[in-house]
Amino acid sequence: MKAVGIIVEYNPLHNGHLHHAQQARAESGADLVVAVMSGQFLQRGEPAFVDKWTRTQMALDAGIDLVIELPYIYATAQASDFAKGGVALLDAIGCESFCFGSEQGQIAPFLNSLQLLTEHAAEYQAFIHEAIQTGISYPKSLNNAYLALTGGQPGFADLTQPNNILGFHYLEAAQRLSSSIKPLTIQRIGANFHDPITVGLPIASATGIREAFFKGNSVEELSTYMPESSISSLKKAEKEYGKFGSWEQFYPLLRFTILREGPENLKLYAEVTEGIENLIYQSAKTADSFEIFMSLVKSKRYTRTRIQRMLTHIYTGFTWQTLHSFQLPSYIRLLGMSEIGKSYLNHKKKNISLPLISRAADLSDSMGKLDIHATTMYLQGMESVHLKKEFTTPPIYRG
């Protein structure tokens, strides 16, 4: 059986995601689709809109055959580490290929860019270091260094586009892992990464869908942009929690944590650097909402995403020391499967290179315990009474 892998967040799963999954299967000729999905906190440094079990159900209903969890350390990391964790898990579970959506739409430019940056690695890093010293952000420094090497010539991937950037890091991760997994890409269609929803268009970004909801749209009013099964799952989640995940919802707990820790402790948390802990602390003293807080902290040097990742780590208690203790995923956490997915696991189980775990009780190492803790903190932020849900929820089966 041939498997194609995709790396996703499904926050929430919309029509563009459905198109991606269908095209990944078609382009690869695979028998099944495996999704590595972020858990309760996401790559942009945010609590998930709905919990990972709700999103697993969305994935299975949309035709995904296996859903496995991307551990917290990778799910909340910068693009290169996010990609490393995702590709490593797809490789470990035996996927022959992986497919990502991109603004580029063709794989050749990514291969050309990877070759260029591999051959000129020292020069590239020198450009980045020089740019950072001028005070501009890290993403901007990367782009300046890349443009200096390519000279704007055609034939290379446009790494100013968010999905292209992530796609490049997927290829880079596969190369560094010495993986034989084959990269594929499809053209991203419809809305761009951060676009608001557009009335009359069936494909919107997840960001646009969330923003529309928080501006007062009901779940039903957003049904144009999502499969019916996703709408059904969102309604169930809304009934269970009475709310959806956002930093505004989590802010009282985040603010309490910041003020309790103080600047000396804040600097111990992952990604908190260069004295920003003082600004974070002082801003929390003043701001009574998350958006006001962010307006006080955000600067040209730090993107909103980077600041939010700092805040995620502060909220969950994830330190620099813990971050540096991990290298690669140590297990595969199964969240859900179809009948085909179940057959695949039975067929491949002797060749899967990492332990396959279906119960939280078996997450005995430090990476697994961190995932359990992150879920507890997420459920606390959602004011759930079911703080043991991690231990009571089995993998979801869709026959």
TrEMBL record:
Residues noted as binding ATP in the record, renumbered to the chain: 7-20, 101, 163, 188-189
Keyword set includes Metal-binding: no
A Pfam family hit: HIGH_NTase1
Keywords of this entry: ATP-binding, Cytoplasm, Ligase, Nucleotide-binding, RNA-binding, tRNA processing, tRNA-binding
GO molecular function, a single term: tRNA binding
Enzyme Commission number, as recorded: 6.3.4.-
Gene3D superfamilies: HUPs
Subcellular location: Cytoplasm
UniProt similarity note: Belongs to the TmcAL family.
Protein name, as recorded: tRNA(Met) cytidine acetate ligase
Organism: Planococcus halocryophilus
Taxon lineage: Bacteria, Bacillati, Bacillota, Bacilli, Bacillales
